[in-house]
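Assemble and predict.
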Amino acid sequence: MRRRAAIFFAAMVPVCAAQAAPGGTLRLTAHAIGSTLDPHIAYLQLQLQVSATVYDGLMTYPKAAGPVTGGAIPDLADVRPVPQDGGLTYVFHLRDGVRFSNGKAVDVEDVAASFRRMFKVHGPTAGSYFGVLVGADACLKDAEHCALAGGVVADPAQHTVTFHLTRPDPDFLNQLGFAQAAIVPADTPAHDMGNEAPFGTGPYRYVRYSPNGGMTLERNPYFREWSHEAQPAAYPDRIEYRFGLDEEAEVSAVENGQYDWMGDGVPLDRLGEVGRRYTDRVTISDFPNIYYLALNVNEAPFNDVRVRQALNYAVNRHAMVIHEGGEALAQPACQMLPIGLAGFEPSCAYTVGAAPDHPAHAWKAPDLDRARALVRASGTAGQTVVIVAPAGATYLAIATELRSTLESLGYVASVRGINQAVQFTYIQNSANHVQAGLTGWIADYPAPAAFVQTLFSCASFHPRSDNSINMSGFCDPAIDALMDRAGTVSMTDMPAGLALWAQADRAIMEKAPAVPLTQIRRIDFVGPRVHNVVVSPVYQLLLSQLQVR
Amino acid sequence: MRSSSSLPPGPWAVAIRALARDRASLVSVGVLALMVLASLMAPLYARYVSRTDPFLSNVAGQVQIDGRAVDIMQPNDNPLHLGLSPIGPTGRGAYLLGADSQGRDVAARLLYGGRNSLLIASAAALLCVVMAGVVGIVAGFFGGVVDAVLSRIMDIMWAVPVYLFAISLSIVMVSQGLTIGPFTITSDNLLIPIVIIAIVYVPYAARPIRGRVMALRNSEFVLAARGLGVPSARILLRDILPNVTGTIVVLAPLLTALALLTESALSFLSIGVQAPAASWGTIIQDGEGLIYTRPLVAVAPGLAIVIVVLALNVLGDGLRDALDVRETSRRGH
């Protein structure tokens, strides 16, 4: 399962610059978007992509191609605030003249109410990202009466909102740039709005949504561009998004010009055809992601570090790249920090000729001899291992490959495919005793903490909960302390902080709570009517920037 | 008393002779024997001809062709280098029919798949005719309340579309396995599709058997036996059962064909034979994602299914014609 939000690199293949040509109706297709429209709750990639054209937060990430080098930028705030009181206080001054799509001007009370609402609707990131606010503990215990007293203070006279934190959080501004920190009117009902959308400030507003049929967006008549980088004015007058086709049909429809873009990835069997016949309609882009096999360190045989290391040695990552569509679309992953992310330092402990104490620069080949020796030493050969994978074709192909690897190490392995919508939470719950769960991770914001700390800190492991993103159940106090130090140091000395993050990444891989497999590239395939394809590493294809011929 | 050499041939001998004169039936038997033999040879083929393990992924592997090492997954010919396709038919021992998306030898998997498909189909058909035979004979012979109860149960089962019934049973059994008293059958056990398929076709086989038994129950030789005070069990075993055997034998190949189709459908839907085991249905599923680039992966098992089902249907027709003679002969005694 993949969550969506942050990123960094840029579009690689053709990005057509063209004369601005506003107007027209953009026609999009996807199998399903499967999500509520409520921006404080929606967490699926396709919905977040649309949400980025409807809502704004105090901060955001540049809506442009190119790497995100400086973190989040101001959006509804007019400048990036400087942390005060040793990182415990942030004062945001709001832009003037920004209006919601119902015509109401955005004021500071809307901001304060939006943060309270995130807790009231049990937003999935309210606790993890904003639990650091003063008063957040009370909100987490009693969401209905959440006041964030002393945590978010609105000052209408100064047109400012002040955030008070219980402890310094080096990622606070980055987390404010995540789509779920959207600002909505203060009178928005404090419950999941479902198929109804709160008013937003972006260039579009929803006019119709049917989860099984589609959605329609039209221009927000009150939108005026205040920052081209934060929220650029849109080109199409209208967006028609239709659901129901499968990926094969989507490819055919985009090829034939019936749709302008497909939200789902191009299936592997159509890649050759698309790459051969529609070269000028394909955009390939990098983004920080990692696909990996989470090994449950609390379940046999992976409660033995030697078995975890053995599997890391044995996995043929070249085969994984093939399953993802080849080297143009994926590269082997050897560590949990993705290539290109700040803090990434090349280090491959598990390849032929390498070890955790003398890692190689990159993955070369599997080392089956060393893997088998480790398994022999562990005495676990012959045990059964079940890999729980999402029931998608690529995931199942990768899981089948991993099953073969486990069999070659002497285990009795099998694959259990589970509906993708369920698998992501299923493998998080320790009560399900999942031994190995195949998954992917796309961080909400581009920072090392969003990978290694989110996925492997003790605080991320919640036994017997569906919301325990530390799927390995890994908890090492020493590594936790190292990650905390990396975050703290990053606030004052970024290079030193990033070096500590790289050290934490290596320390985690030495314990091998997961098998990193691949880092993939995204492919966008557009129809013949559109141009000006701009792919942001955070928001992916910018729907508002497509121009319809 | 006539000597044995001058006795008229028995009904089975007559039937076999009739079948032997039917060219279409003979060809069908030959085709079926060939398919079974080929499937039984799967391990030998994998070991000595293709020299691959058809159950292990091999996408990063290579195959020797004309002394050259060739990648099993071939880069697609496009300027963006997008995607790879499994190697196509080589015309040689290794990867004769090409590879699937896991880099496995399709020909070897086809033979292994045939073993499972044919085993499940024949075992399911056998189990089905046994169950249907019991139901049909008991219902037809005893009539009354027994017949009414059994017939209504069959009616209810018949009212549910067979594939919907099979899918429902499969989802439950494949996800949870099957526990009967002290015995537990795991979800990957072939007994599960065998039992499911046998159950769903019982009404289809029980009906004609019941009808035949009802007709026999009022026949002169049965009435004579009753009149002589012969016990019901003896009448069932000595008079009824031999006379419905023909009906059962004719049903067997037709049920086998139906079972084969059902097994393929269930396996295609991932609720029949479970990976890493193969059946023709799972291989078609493997080929679904390659239909644009390597259609043979799906077409080859599809053709195998068509050939076997056709042969079974022709054989069923031949048996029906041949065994009609036997039944006439029996009634003549």
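The beta strands of chain B are 62-65, 68-71, 73-75, 84-86, 178-180, 183-185.
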